[in-house]
Every structure is written in structure tokens, then in C-alpha cells.
């Protein structure tokens, strides 16, 4: 998700296919403005279920309503009270808010110790919270607060996996070649839902179009003619 958008001369691999659920709302504003209302329902007391509307600045300037899923409740062993664990999409949303605010302390709390993070412009993934946070520190030190991630769409129905489409804006104006997709897998660790895996793919600055299909066809032909080449992939 991160420094790949500032190094757009390198073309990444495509992201995994994801399912998104959104509701189109009215056209409005030019920047993210979360406005959260709360509905309650009975379930061992009353649970607050947030429904967030995010105004998204993009080419069509649409407002996308993104409903949050019900937080997961977990009974603490030996205790009479239930602990409300944040939903996966709320954790991911906080992650982007922390990066935008250059608040690495809040970001670190969302990353599991054994997390693996793949930014596809790098040859190898970042492994472990320490290595990942060092990377985020370099990214923040290389950018200004005027460069902000804007969520275009966010999956909401899975408690352990979240897909995001996003773009970057500079002073509320779209940043060139900055559309991207990210995937996050989350687990509950020490009674907190944390990110255990992330993968980012960003829009390439060089767009080969149908030439890419020609290249793929050529490579597959070679593999069919010389199967031993597959061992070198």
C-alpha cells in the first residue's frame, strides 16, 4: 500500500480477486469525511454497530456508504464481562488513519508480531512487526502529511480478511499513478484483532495494454515447447 505509490516506475503484479459490498450515495465533497452513526441491538446487553459513510475524492467524486460489520464479542475466561473486539474493517481503517496521520505508535498496535507484509515492488516481503515498522518509518520520513491515502472501497463482511481499493491525494488532488489494491488477513491475538498478513499492488506508470497479452502468450508458448524451463521460474 505504501511506498509503492511514490515509486510508480516499477510495475507490480495484479492483486487477488476480492468481493466488495458498498452502497452508492450522493455526490459530495472532495475529501474523506467519516461520519459515524450507531445502531444497537440486543445480544447479552446492547452492542453498538457502527455504520460509516466515507466521502471519497476520486475521478467521479462519489460518496460511498460503507457499513461496518458487527464487532466480535469474546468471553474472558473467569470473568463475567464480555470484551468487544474491533471488526476487521475497523482495524484496517485505523491502519490507514495512522499512516495518514504519521502516527506510528497507533499503527504498531494493529500489527501482529509475526505479521508478513508484501509490497510487490520489493523482491522480498517484510517479516515481523519490527521490520515492517522500520519500513513504515522510512515511508513516513520520505513523504509529507499532504500526501494522503483515500479509501475508495472496503470489504466489510469477513471478520478475518479485508480487501481495499484506494488512491493517493496531494492536498486533496488525485496523485498520478496512485490507484492501488490491498489485502489484509487478521487474527485475534491477546484479545485484540491484528493484521497478520498484508499485500499491496499499485497502478503501474507504464501501461503496456495488449502488448502484455502478447508477452504472456510468448512465455506460455516457450513453456509448452520447453517444459524444463518451468524449473527456472
Automatic annotation (TrEMBL):
The family database entries (Pfam families) matched by this protein are listed as: SnoaL_2
The chain positions of domain SnoaL-like read 92-187
CDD domains to which the protein is assigned, alphabetical: NTF2_like (cd00531)
The record ties this protein, via InterPro entries, to: NTF2-like_dom_sf, SnoaL-like
UniProt-listed SUPFAM superfamilies: NTF2-like
Where does the source fall among the domains of life? Answer: Eukaryota
Q: What is the protein name stated in its UniProt record?
A: SnoaL-like domain-containing protein
